[in-house]
Fold this protein.
Amino acid sequence: MSIEFSSRMRDVAPYPQAATYAFGGDLVKLASNETPWPPHPDVLEAIKAHVGDLNRYPDPGGTALRKALAQRYDYAPERIALGNGSCDILLGVAQAMLEPGAEIVYAWPSFSMYPHLAAMTGARAVTVPLDDAGRHDLEAMLREITVATRICLICNPNNPTATALPLDQIADFVDQVPRHVLVVIDEAYVEFNLLQDPDDSLELLKKNTNVVLLRTFSKVYGLCGLRVGYALASDTFRDAVDRIRQPFSVNALALAAATEALRHQDEVARRVERIAIERVHVESELAERGLATTEGQANFSWVAVEDEAAVLAGLEERGVIVRGGAALGDPGHIRVTYGTRPENDAFLAAIDAVIQRA
Ligand SMILES: Cc1ncc(COP(=O)(O)O)c(C=O)c1O
């Protein structure tokens, strides 16, 4: 006799892990859409200041962080949900809204967590292919929305293709979505998107109570090791997500770090500028080598390659770890996160060696 898991577990695939963790030694880590810089020194101080209190549970309401976010966005703190990474909020909203018979609509390929939401709740996943340029096809997505749809996810910029849609197209889409559907706009990379200012999306919240903006401290703020994300939403959304999850889901160090990180918007601007410079550098160098990328607005490039497995192996041999498209829903690609200039140049040199060998 062996223990028996629920029948839903058959559909829950393991999260596709980057190869980074399997290797020792010095690596160029360009696989997980992280930023290459450590947290701001004041953020490190804020973390240290809380280490001595770790015998206490954290504030379950994350009051100070929600207040800081409310000030940053001029938004009501009761309408801000916090999570142990924005993934935690995605999983929470799925548990709160999905069940057998319900549907969730999203583009594909997109963020690899999305298939989990239907799989773990027994809902039906309705996936809509990206267009030829790797962008969401909003008209096709609209056609898939039915009375059974509970959630529609828009990933903007999209992971893994890095493409972004102009906000006015998303606003038109939201106008046409029936009000019984929650539109979650996953903006994990919004700060890097030069098509809009991150604050512009808040207009959507003013007009539509069924919209959620999902954001994270994992990317531009460089705090993915602590896991903290947030949603700008409605008070009913926050209440549902808070009720369904374990209490104290955001740890004390993460709360302290994120609250301090928000105070350093000048650092955010500096990082965005550096990423934009690296984007131009990497994309133009790849173009010179005849390698096509999508029109990216994130901190990574989506690169078409002839032999994905050979490119991945060749890069790995040289200590450069990127993600293969096969694991992310579209074989024949690699996704490369921008690192520091020396890291990006190490990637380009490794690509040259792989091309020469072929
Ligand atoms: C589109 C997208 N959304 C959400 C996340 C999750 O971020 P976290 O849970 O670290 O906040 C990621 C992480 O890579 C992502 O790419």
Summary: Residues 2 and 99 are 27 Å apart (CA to CA). The chain has a mean pLDDT of 96. The longest strand covers residues 149-155. The chain has two domains: 7-30+265-357, 41-261.
